[in-house]
Design the sequence.
C-alpha cells in the first residue's frame, strides 16, 4: 500500500496541518477523524487495514484530515461564540485548502480524471461527513456516515448564533428551499447508519430526525438502523464500512 505523509501550512488556521494519504489511485475518500481525533486515528484504530482490499485494488484512495475538536466542539472551558468560530476556521481550511489538495493529488493519481469525492467518518467523523456534504454538495458526491449526531446542541447546548446554525444540519437543512443547491444533494449517494446498542441513543434520535428531513426534501438516502447488539464502537464500524463501500462504489 502506498502511504504518504504531508505537513503543510494553513492560512485559514495560521499553522501547519498534517494529513496522510493511503493508496495509489481510485475514488478519493475524505476521512474525518472521531471526536478529538487526529489524522492518524483511522490507521491507529485499524480502519485503514479494513479498507486495504479496496486500496490495493485501486478502488479508493484515503485522505485523512487532521482535527482540532479540542479547540472547538469539545473545549468545555471556552465560550461557545469562540469555539464555533474556531470550528468555522477549520471548516474553511478543509473546504478552501484541504479539498483542493485532495483534488490535485487524486487528479494525477487517476490519469487526470476527476472521480468526485466521498466523505466518511465514525461518530464525530459522521457528524462532519454530513455537515460538509449538506453545506457543500458541490464538492462532495457521496457520504458514508456511521453513528453520528447531526445537531450542534449535543456539543454547545442551547447556544445559537448564525455560525452555529450553519454548522448544525438538523437546524439548517429543514429550511433549504428548492434550488440547484438542493438538487445537488439529490444527485449524491448517501448512507447514514447507526446501531441500536450501547452508547447509540443520541445517534439513533438524530439519525431518525435526519431521515425525516431527507424524506421531506426528497433527498434519496440509505438510512440504516442496525440491531440492538450493534454498539457505538470500532468493531461494528469495521463491519459497516465495507458493507456500504460495496454499495456506494458499485
Sequence:
Amino acid at each position: 500500500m502506498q502511504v504518504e505523509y504531508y505537513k503543510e501550512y494553513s492560512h485559514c488556521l495560521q499553522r501547519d496541518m498534517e494529513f496522510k494519504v493511503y493508496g495509489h489511485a481510485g475514488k478519493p475518500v475524505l476521512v474525518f477523524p472521531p471526536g478529538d481525533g487526529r489524522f492518524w486515528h483511522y490507521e491507529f484504530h485499524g480502519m485503514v487495514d479494513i479498507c486495504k482490499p479496496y486500496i490495493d485494488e485501486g478502488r479508493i484512495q484515503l485522505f485523512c484530515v487532521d482535527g482540532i475538536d479540542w479547540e472547538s466542539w469539545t473545549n468545555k472551558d471556552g465560550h461557545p461564540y469562540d469555539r464555533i468560530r474556531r470550528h468555522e476556521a477549520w471548516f474553511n481550511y478543509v473546504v478552501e485548502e484541504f479539498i483542493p489538495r485532495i483534488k490535485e493529488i487524486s487528479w494525477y493519481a487517476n490519469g487526470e480524471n476527476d472521480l468526485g469525492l466521498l466523505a466518511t467518518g465514525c461518530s464525530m467523523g459522521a457528524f462532519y461527513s454530513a455537515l460538509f456534504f449538506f453545506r457543500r454538495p458541490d464538492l462532495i458526491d457521496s457520504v458514508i456516515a456511521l453513528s453520528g449526531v447531526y445537531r450542534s446542541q449535543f456539543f454547545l447546548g442551547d447556544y445559537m448564533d448564525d455560525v452555529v446554525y450553519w454548522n448544525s444540519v438538523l437546524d439548517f437543512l429543514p429550511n433549504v428551499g428548492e434550488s440547484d443547491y438542493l438538487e445537488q444533494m439529490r444527485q449524491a449517494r448517501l448512507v447514514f447508519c447507526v446501531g441500536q446498542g450501547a452508547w447509540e441513543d443520541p445517534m439513533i434520535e438524530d439519525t431518525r430526525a435526519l431521515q425525516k428531513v431527507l424524506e421531506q426534501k426528497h433527498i434519496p438516502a440509505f438510512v440504516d438502523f442496525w440491531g440492538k447488539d450493534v454498539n457505538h464502537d470500532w468493531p461494528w464500524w469495521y463491519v459497516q464500512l465495507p458493507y456500504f463501500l460495496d454499495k456506494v462504489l458499485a
User: Anything to note?
Assistant: The radius of gyration is 17 Å. The first helix runs from residue 41 to 44.
